[in-house]
Specification:
8 helices; globular; eight-stranded mixed sheet; binds ligand GEK; alpha/beta
Length: about 240
């Protein structure tokens, strides 16, 4: 078994042609390093997702981690959920991610049952859910399909159930957008990424990661029917929302 704890050098060398970003084996091998050095507040969001799940998980219900990657949020939830009869369902459609996620979760001793599925989250039926996590995943779904995905989540949540939605955001105001993007670039540079790595990754993500504004997220969640909506975490151009049914 490889260690998968490598340093992210995916965009370190000049590439002749930059293709769209994919969650393949190369990315899976360095993913923990990549996301920690790219998303300000990632570790805080992950550990507090465990705390939120502990508060809101209901006995005999399902908790979903949609776009689970290597299962960081699943692991955080499984460590804190005490309620009996809970099952965590972790879903990702990238085979390399799912394989490694299964290995990592097997290594831990998880009290709630954990099931890892390789599937498109748009095809997963959400059932008897008390907690649904969409951690930096909605941004990879085609914008026109986002409302439908959230409707399915809302329909499958129990009353009082929660959706934790974490996203990279953009801004309607150009000056604010530039300010936040520059801060994010400074964050990545401070974490050891070169100008070349930052610009090549940006190009690779251009058609793949399409961020919404915070207002678009809030409006969509309200339209879907969520009764309560809090921004519980925000750092530069990254937010996490707590939506309650
Ligand atoms: C974490 N939540 O560490 N169906 C299933 N999975 C998908 C789909 C889809 N349609 N589209 C994208 N993904 C994780 C981090 S990463 C965020 C999430 C990032 C998956 C994709 O394969 C990848 O593993 C994940 O969503 C996004 O808390 O890398 O910026």
């Amino acid at each position: 078994m490889s260690t998968y704890s490598g340093k992210d050098r995916v965009f370190a060398d000049p590439k002749g042609m930059i293709v769209d970003f994919a969650f393949d084996e190369t990315v899976a091998q360095v993913f923990p390093d990549m996301i920690r050095r790219s998303v300000p507040g990632y570790e805080t969001i992950i550990s507090l997702t465990g705390l939120l799940a502990e508060q809101y998980a209901r006995p005999d219900s399902n908790c979903y981690d949609l776009g689970c990657s290597l299962g960081a949020a699943t692991l955080a939830m499984s460590r804190r959920i005490q309620q009996p009869g809970c099952c965590i369902i972790a879903v990702d459609n990238a085979e390399a991610m799912v394989c490694r996620c299964r290995e990592l979760l097997q290594a831990g001793d998880s009290h709630p049952e954990v099931e890892v599925r390789c599937a498109n989250i748009q095809d997963v039926s959400i059932e008897t859910a008390s907690v649904v996590v969409l951690n930096f995943t909605l941004q990879f779904i085609e914008p026109v399909a986002r409302a439908e995905l959230l409707q399915g989540i809302y329909a499958g949540l129990l009353p009082g159930g929660i959706l934790i939605l974490s996203e990279k955001i953009t801004f309607a105001d150009e000056a604010e957008r530039t300010r936040m993007e520059n801060l994010h670039i400074a964050f990545k540079k401070a974490n050891g990424y070169s100008d070349l790595e930052i610009s090549q990754k940006r190009t690779a993500l251009e058609n793949v990661l399409v961020p919404d504004t915070l207002e678009q997220h809030q409006k969509r969640l309200q339209q879907v029917g969520f009764s309560s909506l809090d921004v519980w975490f925000r750092c530069m151009n990254f937010v996490s929302l707590l939506a309650i049914k």
